């Protein structure tokens, strides 16, 4: 059989899994999430001018799509350090979750919002690859706004991985962009360690794209579950702080994790420069395979979160071209190509669920807060009953007298 024939046969059994697509952010920026307002020409079931639509997802043989619920860092200065500054990141993230769920609801039978790894694979198998399983990732713990309670609620809403940082530090970890700007690499904070524990307890996949080198190392030392890099590439081939160094690749192998190769030309470009093509993506995939094996590589396109893809990888319809090219270049066994297509990501997702199930059920949620969080209340709160004697002084608060409980007394 030819590579084309073998690929078509394999696609009947194995879904292509993309761990990172930013299409929901386009809906936010360009349509304000109003999918059917007057004059709106949006139709996900038609050919759009973005990288992603239902027609091309089907042509690309995508079986499981992680849509990113991305919200930018909420300060014009991405090196900001005032994490107590009020912002709208949680509201905006909830809107992103909502628009993905609404999009899936509009295409029953073609898009299926799922919450577990088994549900995603069963949907693919039951529909003979005609239904695309949709799930969610969140691109940065700044979107939790200091709170593990928010993280838990995201999980309940269907989010299945969270990236520890985007292009800004947060109370949990250091971002790669901060290191590129010359700031010190503090890695994972103590609060970040608590966050990893809570993600493991819940079954949330830890995503290490965008984070600093030390954050990668620190996280891989403390996590009890395998990690992913939802959209990263290889540092040895392209020296960018976002990319994964060889020492971390070895730790990923020991951890059982997966590096999902990014299609952003900036992270794939050859050192000599020039046009970035599908062959550069193949090089990065092969490097991971040659260094730590077929069990640790996947696909994380970053489509619609990048200006354009490499030549030959222009949109979501092009995954088959990439898979066939890798197969031709490597002469790999079918079982290994299946791992690249998506079974590695499925394994990690399933393993994170199993780690959560094995957690001691007597363990309560991690209740810690960031040690520098500023808790502000009005003076009238002191007039309320104590929970127990001395409970008012159990924590450090800041009280303000700018409001009264009964403003008629002013």
TrEMBL record:
Its cofactor is Zn(2+). This is Dipeptidase. It is an enzyme of class 3 (hydrolase). Its EC number is 3.4.13.19. One of its GO terms (molecular function) is metallodipeptidase activity. PROSITE patterns: RENAL_DIPEPTIDASE_2. Belongs to the metallo-dependent hydrolases superfamily. Peptidase M19 family. It holds the Pfam family Peptidase_M19. It catalyses: an L-aminoacyl-L-amino acid + H2O = 2 an L-alpha-amino acid. Keywords: Dipeptidase, Hydrolase, Metal-binding, Metalloprotease, Protease, Zinc.
């Amino acid at each position: 059989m030819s590579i084309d024939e073998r690929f078509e046969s394999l696609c009947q059994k194995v879904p292509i899994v993309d761990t990172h697509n930013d299409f929901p952010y386009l809906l936010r920026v360009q349509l304000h999430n109003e999918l059917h307002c007057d004059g709106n020409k949006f139709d996900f079931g038609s050919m759009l001018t973005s990288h992603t639509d239902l027609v091309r997802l089907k042509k690309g043989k995508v079986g499981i799509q992680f849509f990113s619920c991305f919200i930018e860092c909420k300060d014009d200065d991405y090196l900001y350090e005032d994490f107590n500054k009020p912002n709208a990141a949680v509201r905006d993230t909830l809107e992103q979750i909502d628009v993905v769920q609404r999009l899936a609801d509009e295409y029953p039978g073609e898009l299926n919002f799922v919450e577990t790894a088994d549900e995603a694979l069963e949907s693919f198998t039951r529909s003979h690859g005609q239904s695309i399983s949709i799930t969610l990732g969140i691109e940065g713990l700044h979107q939790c706004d200091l709170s593990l309670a928010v993280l838990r609620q995201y999980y309940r809403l269907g989010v299945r991985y969270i990236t520890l940082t985007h292009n800004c530090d947060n109370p949990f970890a250091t971002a790669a962009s901060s290191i590129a700007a010359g700031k010190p690499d503090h890695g994972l904070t103590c609060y970040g360690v608590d966050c990893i524990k809570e993600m493991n307890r819940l079954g949330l996949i830890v995503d290490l794209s965008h984070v600093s080198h030390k954050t990668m190392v620190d996280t891989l030392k403390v996590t009890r579950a395998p990690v992913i890099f939802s959209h990263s590439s290889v540092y040895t081939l392209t020296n960018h702080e976002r990319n994964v160094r060889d020492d971390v690749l070895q730790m990923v192998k020991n951890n059982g994790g997966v590096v999902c190769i990014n299609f952003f030309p900036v992270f794939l470009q050859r050192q000599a420069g020039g046009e970035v093509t599908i062959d550069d993506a193949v090089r990065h995939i092969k490097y991971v395979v040659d260094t730590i094996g077929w069990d640790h590589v996947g696909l994380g396109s970053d489509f619609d979160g990048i200006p354009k893809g490499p030549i030959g990888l222009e949109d979501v319809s092009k995954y088959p071209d990439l898979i066939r090219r890798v197969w031709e270049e490597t002469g790999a066994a079918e079982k290994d190509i299946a791992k690249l297509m998506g079974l590695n990501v499925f394994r990690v997702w399933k393993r994170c669920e199993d780690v959560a199930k094995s957690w001691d059920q007597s363990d309560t949620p991690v209740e810690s807060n960031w040690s520098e969080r500023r808790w502000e209340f009005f003076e009238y709160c002191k007039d309320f009953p104590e929970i127990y004697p001395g409970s008012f002084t159990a924590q450090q608060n800041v009280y303000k007298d700018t409001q009264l409980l009964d403003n008629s007394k002013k």
